[in-house]
Amino acid sequence: MTPVLEARGLVKRYGRVTAMDGADFELESGEVLAVVGDNGAGKSTLIKALSGAVIPDEGEILVDGERVRFHGPLDSRKHGIETVYQDLALAPALDIATNLFLGRERRRRDPLGTVFRRLDTKGMRREARRVLDELGIDVKSMSQLVETLSGGQRQAVAVARAAAFGSRVVIMDEPTAALGVQESGKVLELIGRIRDRGLPVVLISHNMPHVFEIADRVHVHRLGRRVAVVSPKTHSMNAVVGLLTGALRMADDGSIEEVDLTTGLSR
Amino acid sequence: MTPVLEARGLVKRYGRVTAMDGADFELESGEVLAVVGDNGAGKSTLIKALSGAVIPDEGEILVDGERVRFHGPLDSRKHGIETVYQDLALAPALDIATNLFLGRERRRRDPLGTVFRRLDTKGMRREARRVLDELGIDVKSMSQLVETLSGGQRQAVAVARAAAFGSRVVIMDEPTAALGVQESGKVLELIGRIRDRGLPVVLISHNMPHVFEIADRVHVHRLGRRVAVVSPKTHSMNAVVGLLTGALRMADDGSIEEVDLTTGLSR
Amino acid sequence: VGCTSTKSGSDDAAGDGKTKIGLVTKTDSNPYFVALREAAKAQADKNGAELVALAGKFDGDNDGQVAAIENLVQQGAKTILVTPNNSTGILGAIKKARDKGVLVIALDTETDPQDAVDATIATDNTEAGRLQGQYVKAALNGQPARSILLDGTPGSTVSEQRHAGYVESAQPEDLGTEATNGEQNKAQQATENLLQRATTVNSVYTINEPAARGAYVALKAKNLADKVVIGSIDGSCDGVTAVKNGEIAVTVMQFPKKMAEQGVDFAVEFAKSGKKPSGFVKTDTAVVTDKPIAGIDSKDTAWGLENCWG
Amino acid sequence: MTTRVSPSEYILRTPAIGPAIALVVAVVVFGLTTDTFLNVDNLSLVVQQSLVIGTLALGQTLVILTAGIDLANASIAVFSTLLIAKLAMTGTDGVVALLVGILAAGAIGCVTGGLVTGLRLPPFIVTLGMLTIVTAVSRIYAQGQSFPVTDGTLGWLGTTQYLFGQIEVTYGMAVMLAMFLGLWYALSRTAWGKHVYAVGNDPESARLSGIHVRRTVLSVYLVAGLIYGIAAWQALGRVPNADPNAFQLGNLDSITAVVIGGTSLFGGRGSVLGTLVGALIVAVLRSGLTQAGIDNLYQDVATGVLVIAAVAVDRFSRGRQR
Amino acid sequence: MTTRVSPSEYILRTPAIGPAIALVVAVVVFGLTTDTFLNVDNLSLVVQQSLVIGTLALGQTLVILTAGIDLANASIAVFSTLLIAKLAMTGTDGVVALLVGILAAGAIGCVTGGLVTGLRLPPFIVTLGMLTIVTAVSRIYAQGQSFPVTDGTLGWLGTTQYLFGQIEVTYGMAVMLAMFLGLWYALSRTAWGKHVYAVGNDPESARLSGIHVRRTVLSVYLVAGLIYGIAAWQALGRVPNADPNAFQLGNLDSITAVVIGGTSLFGGRGSVLGTLVGALIVAVLRSGLTQAGIDNLYQDVATGVLVIAAVAVDRFSRGRQR
Ligand SMILES: Nc1ncnc2c1ncn2[C@@H]1O[C@H](COP(=O)(O)OP(=O)(O)OP(=O)(O)O)[C@@H](O)[C@H]1O
Ligand SMILES: Nc1ncnc2c1ncn2[C@@H]1O[C@H](COP(=O)(O)OP(=O)(O)OP(=O)(O)O)[C@@H](O)[C@H]1O
Ligand SMILES: [Mg+2]
Ligand SMILES: [Mg+2]
């Protein structure tokens, strides 16, 4: 089966810092793929490349097996890829509903809408209320400005946006980082529901229990590249943590072995 | 024993939104106090009031039993209270070392420093490297600009700053939200070490395992006020989650009871 | 409205509400207009009238002058003295004012057509430029003039007229023309830059005396001040002093004070008797220099200092 | 828990409320201290006097909402008046001349926008450069002359009519009103408007949200340019004479109106209603101080103080929220 | 893994590298196209001509680094020249007059800073108001006159000396150099400088980091004011005559120098070195175009184009980093 979204040998350098160093990536249809790795491993850079927000220096990206070139976030959106960025990408001075529909506003169906391009503000607020309620986020009013929301409330808005509009792939960069216990649970549920809709989801998270609860496969990222792909069914949390810290290594045959101490210290 | 830091009946309103609604708070010396609560419960607002970043509409704050009035973050700093804010409060265009020492730069000891007020840039970089290494954060150079750091690296800088300078209380608002498994572990260790120095720590976190690993007491916040203080030794994670979602309630005698369904739905 | 206001004029002058005279100059920064304003104020005080002075914000601010005239009419000015930015820009506002019975007198600059205002009191700027050129040419003893030309604001009518007058009579070889906005600093800078290549210069045309002083400082730094004839226009006391000190060879004096006094007198007369002046009153120009040249009618600086303005 | 906003909150969130208070205060003070300020004629005049700067300020508002600034707006309008007047003088039909002038202004706006978006240059410096260039080109084009306008269409906006036989209004006012309503609608009721705010508020977020940032900014400079063209028409209605030296302070005056109107120079926050009020405040000050018999230089001092005061009033009326 | 920065990276991170390239390009082009531009005398003149705007731009840099802008700087300097010259004329000792003038400029800076920090008003509007007020006050004070300066101290900065018997230098250049070095040191080597950058970069973060935001901003306006006072001294060295109408475009010119120098108008990024280069670029353009024999108005067109080009060069020389 061709992967829905695939990347080969992505490289991205920032001056002396190499954020991605030949990263590969594969997302199968209908799965939840977790991407885990240390801080600074290059996870965000990877998914930014996949969503067109960053243009890699080298490497290629394929959607449904066909090579694509993303020049900006809009290009990936057109392919149905929807992303929650780590820094959320919300406009603080605009209200919740406006942020949710930013870039794909709905116009009214009546002549005011078709001729005068008037927005269906009420309809969008209603819909915004609906998707946020689904996440169980308690916000007073859809016309509240995003800058007045708590950290978690903001994150929920960004997650809701991606969930509502993704049609081929949904990518979430640490969507539950600022969320409470309940709200995190809701987001995991939501991810499950998206998968049930048949959409694959990429989930970046540092929360191993979450990862092991929801992921079908786990992509382990380290020092700018993929070092292993494991299944949470066959591998333990400790194995994954070992892999991402570099204490363990996946051999070519897929078995996991300890990195011997001298090599481990050489860094 | 008088609490090191105490608050009574704090209220803060933003237009129609009441972010704090009579919140109480008590921090005993030498303890790690976790503050938990749903998104939007008002935790950040509470600690902003305690650190002078927000001026409450009502209520009083006491340091070592004496009433204080904070007019800005500087006032609380002068009392030795050091805070990691949820949105980090770093200047993105400045480098790591400068951010770490912002507002309390070190001058050189030689005449250049005393007469011409020249900064000890090298010394500060060396010290910055030391505290970041302690947290196990892998950053290339102390002269790297904060805006080029990954989300987790930034958070580490903020945590390191508070840990290095707190002399009476250290407050951390979700310090591990963006951190990886290893780095989170290091921060928890650091909190432990701070406590061992005799400094009390306030830790806001949504991560129950972390909370239960490190906290001496747990302050449960709900709808703008404290609804319970429990000990992780005597209460289970489920009980705390129940309290913060409102499914459970702490009676005046300290016992925990289920909220009956009709009341639960009335909101 | 016109008749009644005319009639009540004398009562006003006697009682609490003095006769209001409006003055609208091009700007309130140019020393020339400041002198005009101060003279008008003094004359109004002497006659027990009230003078409200308004101005555009810069050379060419027609919109500001229109608003000023409108606001003066609203405020009940009986006479408006105006130095129009250009001859046609503000005719609409002038017409509206006159329709309401206000006496409008153009000072310094004519309108086109002239009968758009009740009367005009003005100098001839082209003539002033011509006089400057005439003197400079004569002072060069038969050498052809090789000039640096320092203009005012690019495109302003006065600047164009004076420049044209100078070119007509001096027939100079143009070694470089720069806009100085009549400012000493800019004139100095422009001259410095031009002198880098205009090594054969023997004369400088300047729009006004600050520009002339700027040119002088730049020439002096290159030890050229003695070899170059600087001409100017205006007749301010500073300018005449510069002529006296030998910094400037000649200046063509104008008489803003006379214009202002004459204008205020007309206004006072109108308030008293309702009599409107008409026609064109030409005020003089005088060549001021301490090195008179045969065939050119000129005054010395002693006379100049007695008659200068500012 | 409803999505309705209470009236009091609505007022507080309307960014034009502070400026409106300042305007009312100014009108009341001048009404009390002079006998001529509050008469109908004078009030009409004040509005007429605010038309050109007000129109320039509308375009300026758009640009400032995208976190830009336009120092060239008045010079573009002046160039447009020259083009129109010179064309009309050489026999071109008034309507055609007008259209050419407005489109030329739009084209210059496009160039500015192209430089800002295409080369990612700071708007301040691009428009400063354009200011120098366009002003010089106007002067070269005019060759030291100014051009009186006689064609009816061109002066049409200055034509006065009387409402109820009393209130003097001009077509210029109607055009201003129409433009204001159009912009208000476009900014608050269409996707384009949301994009303008989003781009000004946080360009990176807007980009990640899939907004065509460059296209939006470019469209703003284009629309602003067209508005400056209309400002040229308004100017010919006020002063039927195209002069290359006119409106040299129009850029700063229009920015003043925008800022007094409560729009943030950092982009993303503000409204055209505020700008309208801001332009009126400036005209009211100028007129009121004249009615009070204050001389020009002292008027300048007073205007400076009052402009600062107006913004201070705005700040305090909203300060309660924080 | 070392904390040393490699030379090439150091160059890239130095914000003045783009402007420096633009400057070199301009000098080379004018050197090749004219025979007079590259001679020693002329180069010295160019530097002298950049002194006043350069000094104003140094103060402007400080203000812009805090995300402010100062439209009143040149008018403050002009007021200061008048004060100094009038005092000296009425018999006050030159040194005393000079000190009074510089301190007065500092005091005006303080008022501006007080309004910006105390009432939290936008610097654009406060300084626009101050521009109007100070200009009017200068004109009222001068009463239509200008004041020649004869006292030696006051014109001292214009005194020329010859280095190696060839190169014409003035004391003004030395003062400029000293001021630049002082500011460079203060901004990059002291806590105050770090605070200025932090406040401009993100005022809320700076506040939460425990910086006295208001005090820092106030100090910036005070220091800037004092620098404008020194600019007044430089101006008297260049033109020994205090004129209320001088330097009317000094504010925009100084902002141009700052922006060409690579300092961001959004605050927190930039350097005084860049500003110095920026001021030189502007002077080089003006002089070079004159040497090339280009007419005034066409010079304006060229200056506009070149200013935009200079910033574009800066943008591209740094574009590689992103
Ligand atoms: N714009 C930039 N300029 C310079 N370096 C950058 C830039 N963006 C990212 N980096 C560097 O690239 C590396 C990878 O960053 P990235 O944000 O992809 O990490 P991450 O895996 O998402 O980490 P985290 O879990 O902390 O979010 C880091 O070392 C970071 O400092
Ligand atoms: N400046 C503000 N203006 C208006 N409302 C605000 C403002 N700051 C906070 N609020 C509101 O106050 C409430 C409490 O916010 P707060 O940030 O304290 O929550 P929190 O408990 O820290 O949540 P989280 O866990 O998501 O960070 C929220 O409903 C938020 O929308
Ligand atoms: Mg990341
Ligand atoms: Mg919070």
Automatic annotation (TrEMBL), chains A, B:
UniProt domain ABC transporter: residue ranges: 5-248
Highest taxon above the source species: Bacteria
This protein's UniProt keywords: ATP-binding, Nucleotide-binding
Keyword rRNA-binding: no
Pfam families assigned: ABC_tran
Entry's Gene Ontology molecular function annotations: ATP binding; ATP hydrolysis activity
Entries under SUPFAM superfamilies matching the protein: P-loop containing nucleoside triphosphate hydrolases
The UniProt record lists the keyword Acyltransferase: no
Protein's recorded name: Fructose transport system ATP-binding protein
Annotated source species: Actinophytocola oryzae
From TrEMBL, chains D, E:
Gene Ontology CC annotation, any one: plasma membrane
GO MF: transmembrane transporter activity
InterPro entries, per the entry: ABC_transp_permease (IPR001851)
Alphabetical keyword list: Cell membrane, Membrane, Transmembrane, Transmembrane helix
Segments traversing the membrane: 12-33, 71-89, 95-117, 124-142, 162-187, 217-236, 256-285
Protein name, as recorded: Fructose transport system permease protein
Membrane topology per record: Multi-pass membrane protein
Location in the cell: Cell membrane
